Amino acid sequence: MPDHHPGVSVSGSNRPRFHFTPTSGWINDPYGVTWHDGRYHLFFQHLPGQVSWAPEQHWGHAVSDDLLRWTEHEVVLSPDDIDGGIWSGSVVRTDSGDGRMFYTAVRVDHPQIGVVRAARPADPSWNVWHKEATVAAPPEGLRLAAFRDPYVLHDGHQWRMLVGAGTPDGTALALSWTSPDLDTWSYVGVLASRPSSSVDPVWTGTVWECPQLFQVGSAWVLVVSVWAEHQTRYEAYAVGDLVDGKFMPRAWRRLTYGPGHYAGSAFTDNDGRPCLLHWLRDVVDPERGWAGAHSVSHVLSLQGDRLLAEPHPVVAFAAEPLPPGTARRIGRANLQLDDDVLAVEIDSQRWTMPCRGGPVRLLVDGPVVEIFGPEGVAAFAVGPRTDPALSTGSPSVRAART
Questions:
Q1: What Cα–Cα distance (Å) separates residue 3 from each residue in 29, 170, 224, 318?
Q2: Is 47 a residue whose pLDDT tops 70?
Q3: Kind of enzyme, top EC level (predicted)?
Q4: Cα end-to-end distance, the chain, whole Å
Q5: C-alpha distances in angstroms, 332 versus 9, 297, 369?
Q6: CA 20, CA 280: separation in Å to the nearest integer?
Q7: pLDDT of 383
Q8: CB–CB of 363/371 below 8 Å?
Q9: Neighbour tally for 273: CB within 10 Å
Q10: Regarding predicted confidence, which is higher, 1 or 74?
Q11: Torsion over CA of 31, 136, 105 and 266, rounded to 10 degrees?
Q12: Fewer CB near the last or first residue (10 Å), C or N of the chain?
């Protein structure tokens, strides 16, 4: 399949140059970015042959030498008689180089509550994977409204798995399992939770999708994708400490603004930098048979208890400063940056992002805009308007992912 090269537009298409898009079909959540055998491997939610979301998800696969030029490979996991849909998860690589996938297996008629299954690569190329047994399921005695999106990491002592969840009373959860060997897993309780009644300083919804736990320096960071009322909302995070298997947040903050970023996936690049990669909603070209895009890689750092994101060095050349007082039109969007607030209006819809205390950078890539500020990041599509039913961020599609 063709590479997506920076600086080269796909002839006759509305594709971005620096943001990964599928050759055809639908994509959403990215995950499992791993440096293996001299290149990066990316996995993602994928529906071949259609441009709207459905629960019968597959796992797509692409590779890159530099996090910028991606070559799409064949699908690595598909639904079968056991797995009605292959939903989001993660990939880890052991010190010996062995790979392991952990994914959400769902029933199409009841996708809210999944189970976690594992898979192993059949060869060093990671192009073929074999499914294995279920390794985690909703804990007995815990009433849940949602259970999905395993994220596996080594916490310095043992392997740890987080699974996103929510209770019927509106409490969002990150549940936790531990393992000495990636084969045998023990449920160890709730890693973190927050009720939907808590709104100060940011509301974090009724379900946490795609929980990501990682270190930036000596601090632990928990990033969650906020879900509520059958809609994907935004990403939030807390900086804190991991104490006896519990995440102790210092303060919750909002990470993403606008209709773009969701389902952030944490990884470490080959130079040891902590990074996030996000799904970009609303980037579609149904006439040419593809829908969905991923952000550029974001490099993370901390300023006190605030998480800062910048474009990865491989794409930083494409980002320009956006000084205070700027008023600019990009495609269908009008941007206005005052001293401490960025305001964006697209098709009569207006939203803002706080920008106090630091520089703002703008990355325009064909139909995609990403903005990096001192208090968060924003993304939105500025390409031609499309049928709302095909939009990755439309209420009808969001409602389907319940």
A1: 20, 43, 31, 19
A2: yes
A3: hydrolase
A4: 32
A5: 20, 25, 11
A6: 10
A7: 77
A8: yes
A9: 16
A10: 74
A11: -10
A12: N
112 phi and psi angles, rounded to 5 deg? -65, -35
- Domains, the chain, ranges and CATH? 24-310+389-400 (2.115.10.20), 317-381 (no CATH)
Neighbouring C-alpha atoms within 13 Å toward the C-beta of 308: 15
Pick the catalytic residue from 3, 29, 181, 244: 29
Give ∠ CA 249-253-256 in degrees, rounded to 5. 135
Instruction: Tell me what pLDDT residue 385 has.
Output: 53
CB atoms near residue 143 (< 10 Å): 8
Share above pLDDT 90 across residues of the chain, in percent, rounded to a whole number:
90
- pLDDT score of 9: 29
Q: What is the mean pLDDT of residues 227-249?
A: 97
Q: What is the mean pLDDT of the chain?
A: 92
Q: Which two tokens stand for residue 298?
A: 């974001």
Q: Tell me which amino acid residue 68 is.
A: L
37 is catalytic: no
